[in-house]
Amino acid sequence: MDTNNTNNFTNTETPNIQRGRSFEEIIGEIFDRNFCLQKNAEPNKYPWDYVVGDDIKIETIYTAYPIAKHLWRALALDIARIGKQYLPSIIFVINQSFDTKDVPEDISLLYGDKINLVSLENLFFLCGDDGNLRSRLAQCLTFSTENVSPRPLDNNVAKLLFPHRKIVKSNTAPSFTERLANILPGKKDFTKYENFCFDFVNEIFQNNIEHTVAQHKNNRDLYRFDIVAALKNNPESFWKFIYDKYNSCFILFECKNFSEQIGQDEIYSTERYLYNNALRNVAIIFSRKGANASAKQACQSVLKEHGKLILVLNDNDVRTLDNLYKQKRQETVLFSPSDYLFDLAKDFLLNLDK
After folding, report:
1. What is the pTM of this model?
2. How far is CA 345 from CA 47, 99, 152, 264, in A?
3. Regarding beta strands 227-231 and 250-256, do their DSSP bridges make them parallel or antiparallel, or are they unpaired?
4. CATH architecture of residue range(s) 2-164
5. Model confidence over 48-104: pLDDT tens digits?
6. The CATH number of 176-350 is which of 3.30.930.10, 3.40.1350.10, 1.20.1600.10, 3.50.50.60?
7. How far is 242 from 347, CA to CA, in rounded Å?
């Protein structure tokens, strides 16, 4: 594994090094899901991370930012470190979005078709229908993956791995829509609803948020957020909008498993957790029945008086987001869950009272 710009942090576990370690672990899980994999038992002796079968080596490369020169520089350094004699039987797994035709001429002229590469698109393809694995992979990345579509392995890589493939069972876990239907509104199922919302946010919005924390309390335990998350670098759609226009690097999600529509009290209590100096000026409230008239008026007041944006989603919105997420993954629609949130925000702003 190679991490970008880590030479100056030999004795320090920086966030990027931590992400690189997580990336390496998740690559092991992804490949173990699909192929007969073993961990390199002697990493000091052999300069790769995993072995498929008896002789196919897997080396992970993690670069902190989606900048082409960093990616290809990291690849060139890894080839030099490992030795080009291993190239025909080694697969480089990189946490970036690219196509093999993107390989720079100086590298391709030196090594030709001997370089076996696996991109981020290939990794999402190998995750299949395992939503948890996809979410954890996305959490390792500092940048948005909104427009990264799954893509099968390139022919050379597929030929190497094909003899060692496993039969992958389909993920039979219930969909979010099915899970929601089994949660009753009211106090009894409040914890189930909060856990549902945490899983939902982590998976549906995985391409644009990271560092998701549930039930985050302040230093004196006086209050808590339900869910708070950070926006990734270069966010897309709705997330770019709130980053640019509302000075928000973080977003708050509240979960209200009420039997009735929420009122203005819930809006004003959420507004107290939003601070401009903390770069957190936007909240999304999950509410089973949505917002009543006084709550909608309170959302407008909070925006006009304090510049804070609060959106309220109901069960129909959640089901729509789940459906869009599944369709986007299957590439049957171009419209994403983030685009849906953006439309809700635009509709709210267009209908503000004078």
Report:
1. 0.76
2. 50, 35, 35, 19
3. antiparallel
4. 3-Layer(aba) Sandwich (3.40)
5. 899 998 889 999 999 887 778 888 888 988 888 888 888 889 999 999 998 888 888
6. 3.40.1350.10
7. 15
